[in-house]
Design a protein that fits this description.
Layout lengths: L6 E3 L4 H18 L5 E7 L2 E13 L2 E5 L2 H10 L1 E5 L6 E10 L4 E11 L10 E13 L2 E11 L2 E6 L10 E10 L4 E17 L2 E8 L3 H26 L1
Antiparallel strand pairs: 1-7, 2-3, 2-5, 3-4, 4-7, 5-6, 6-7, 8-9, 8-11, 9-10, 10-13, 11-12, 12-13
Length: 239
């Protein structure tokens, strides 16, 4: 789980919250495997969420049986969110170990979180590699790389300080890959700056875009094929 996907919630203290969560899992293990637990990871923006079975709590470590694709995502991310109706909040845990072949995982360092990624209106997938992009405002052009895409917008890393401000209206040009034909489709569309942050000598810019049937068609096709490719990657890595 990427840090910008969630916001940590501290009820008492970090240590007390972790101890409370471990105590809750000890009680659940005693109740048997019927207790519903689901893990949630994001692999390059694609949500990976399968049921998991509680096995035991050993010291401060929770052992679980997990789906092989979840094990792959756990190993890559190093963190996971846990959803369980027994707890009032979503949980975050660090991954101590994830074994794809044995379909097992060990989790520790638990905390409560507010899962902000669930507030997104549409799925946001990483562009790999980042796509060439250009930001134009008042006749000034800034080169950039588009990092991710959704039906509602893009994130892009500018090559230099963009001098943009939140709320600015820009013309955004992005070279969207056509994954089926191994080509690119140039998209030019009006966009609004919704967030800015300094990064790598430039700025990480998040843009929202308006509704346009032609543009949505191009993006929908890309997002669908990208999901297919990511699922195939996970299946290959999980054996």
């Amino acid at each position: 789980m990427e840090p910008n996907f969630y916001r940590t919630m501290v009820k008492a203290s970090t240590e007390a919250d972790c101890a409370e969560i471990l105590g809750g899992f000890r009680d659940l293990v005693k109740r048997g495997p019927a207790v519903g637990v689901k893990l949630l990871n994001y692999y390059k923006g694609l949500p990976i969420s399968y049921p998991a079975t509680l096995v035991e709590v050993s010291g401060e470590i929770l052992e679980l049986d997990v789906h092989p694709q979840q094990a792959v995502a756990l190993g890559i991310s190093g963190r996971t969110c846990i959803k369980c109706g027994t707890f009032a909040h979503t949980l975050l845990a660090e991954v101590k170990d994830a074994d794809v072949r044995r379909m097992m995982a060990s989790l520790h360092n638990f905390s409560y979180v507010d899962l902000m990624v669930e507030q997104r209106a549409s799925l946001r997938l990483e562009l790999e590699p980042p796509a060439d992009a250009e930001i134009t405002i008042a006749g000034r052009k800034v080169a950039a790389k588009a990092l991710d895409v959704s039906l509602g917008g893009f994130s892009a890393l500018s090559s230099e300080r963009s001098l943009l401000e939140k709320g600015d209206e820009v013309l955004l040009k992005v070279m969207i890959p056509n994954l089926l034909h191994n080509t690119v489709t140039p998209l030019e569309l009006p966009a609004t700056v919704v967030e800015l942050a300094e990064a790598d000598g430039g700025e990480l810019c998040r843009f929202s875009i308006g509704s346009d049937p032609q543009i949505e068609g191009v993006l929908s096709r890309f997002i669908f094929q990208r999901q297919v490719d990511l699922i195939r990657e996970l299946k290959e890595m999980s054996g």
